[in-house]
């Protein structure tokens, strides 16, 4: 069976699908990954066919405020909609759609008569159990949470609306509103699998059948992959260090953030590894090492703690390693996942990015490393995650879809 996984966004929106692709390949399927062109190396390393999507999230800056985020999202979706059908509709038997591509992919699947399924990294269906991931962590009560969830979907639909209208016209499909399309999906019980851990966020009690939480999906890491020799030497030279990294966030702020990180680490009496990322973090000292992109699965279990932006994948990777976090959320769903890490006891109260100081970060690091409750909570979550097999659940769901 020829399966196409379509996703778009930052590295954290793409990398987990490489593990899914490998699992499906091992089950005997031909698998292609459609994503924006910068991520071709991820697909190639995993042995997957790659199909470039016509957009680049980096071209629209590093938005942080809600208005900036909406403008950047609209520009990204406009680019993504151009040529999307051509990128994904080439001999596909099954189409797997991320939350960022589903609003376009639904229409491609309709035009081609291709079975499809959602493979989401975040919960998007309204629920009374918690507020939408894009609005933070403050509960509005069950009715309020559901209303806020519906409003969040409405705002997302507005972002996609122009691109969807053009796409349906190119596909010779009649006009269709986003609200009506969602009603169709709900009536058909369109299946959506969610790749996050119930250790971090239980499945909502009011979700309909067909909406499943499988456990996390992990980026592919080759069996022969190793950490760089310089990093191995640094790890062996002293007690476990702390990793500080912001992934695809905070572009251009590396010098300021690097200085804050070094001062915070020394205030807490800890060694550190700075992951350069999009921010360009860097430091040169005996007690601090700067590295590039490295597999979380290889590095995180050897750390004392992780300072990160609370992207869904990084939050899950820290829990999987049984390592406590200090979260510095920047935008989008990051405050939500930061709040969930604090709620399960694996992190202290989040430090908003705009409020980050060396003193505050240093004090938070000293707290999570020296108070055993944080490591104990992370270890408990790691035991829970160890028995979740999100990739096997996905393979089984695909079998049911085409069976």
UniProtKB/TrEMBL annotation:
Keyword Transferase part of the UniProt annotation: yes
Primary enzyme class: lyase
EC number from the UniProt entry: 4.3.3.5
One protein family per Pfam: Glyco_transf_28
Alphabetical UniProt keywords: Lyase, Transferase
Keyword Transcription: no
Domain annotation Erythromycin biosynthesis protein CIII-like C-terminal: ranges: 283-386
A biological-process GO annotation: carbohydrate metabolic process
Domain Glycosyltransferase family 28 N-terminal: 3-72
Cross-referenced InterPro entries: EryCIII-like_C, Glycosyltransferase_28, GlycoTrans_28_N, UDP_glucos_trans
Entry GO MF terms: hexosyltransferase activity; lyase activity; UDP-glycosyltransferase activity
Annotated protein name in UniProt: 4'-demethylrebeccamycin synthase
């Amino acid at each position: 069976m020829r399966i196409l996984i379509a996703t778009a966004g930052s590295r954290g929106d793409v990398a987990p699908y490489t593990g899914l692709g490998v699992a499906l390949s091992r089950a005997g399927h031909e698998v292609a990954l459609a994503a924006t062109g910068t991520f071709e190396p991820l697909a190639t390393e995993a042995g997957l066919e790659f199909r470039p999507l016509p957009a680049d999230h980096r071209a629209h800056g590093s938005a942080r405020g809600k208005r900036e985020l909406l403008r950047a999202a609209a520009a990204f979706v406009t680019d993504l909609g151009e040529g999307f059908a051509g990128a994904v509709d080439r001999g596909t038997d099954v189409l797997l759609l991320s939350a960022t591509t589903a609003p376009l992919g639904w229409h491609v699947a309709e035009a081609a008569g291709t079975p499809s399924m959602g493979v989401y990294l975040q919960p998007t269906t309204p629920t009374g159990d918690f507020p939408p991931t894009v609005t933070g962590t403050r509960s509005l009560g069950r009715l309020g949470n559901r209303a806020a969830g519906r409003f969040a979907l409405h705002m997302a639909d507005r972002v996609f609306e122009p691109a969807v209208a053009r796409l349906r016209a190119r596909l010779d499909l009649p006009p269709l509103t986003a609200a009506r399309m969602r009603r169709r999906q709900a009536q058909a019980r369109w299946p959506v699998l969610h790749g996050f851990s119930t250790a971090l966020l239980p499945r909502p009690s009011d979700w309909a059948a067909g909406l499943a939480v499988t456990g996390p999906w992990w980026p592919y890491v080759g069996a022969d992959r190793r950490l760089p020799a310089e990093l191995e030497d640094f790890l062996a030279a002293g007690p476990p260090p702390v990793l500080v990294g912001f992934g695809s966030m905070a572009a251009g702020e590396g010098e300021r953030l690097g200085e804050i990180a070094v001062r915070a680490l020394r205030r807490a009496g800890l060694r550190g590894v700075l992951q350069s990322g999009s921010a360009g973090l860097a430091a040169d000292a005996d007690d601090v090492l700067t590295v590039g992109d490295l597999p979380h699965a290889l590095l995180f279990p050897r750390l004392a703690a992780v300072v990160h932006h609370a992207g869904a994948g990084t939050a899950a990777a820290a829990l999987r390693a049984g390592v406590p976090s200090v979260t510095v959320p920047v935008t989008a769903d990051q405050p939500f996942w930061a709040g969930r890490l604090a709620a399960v006891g694996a992190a202290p109260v989040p430090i908003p990015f705009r409020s980050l100081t060396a003193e505050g970060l240093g004090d938070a690091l000293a707290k999570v490393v020296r108070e055993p409750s944080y490591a104990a909570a992370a270890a408990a979550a790691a035991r829970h995650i160890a028995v979740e097999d999100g990739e096997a659940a996905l393979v089984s769901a695909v079998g049911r879809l085409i069976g």
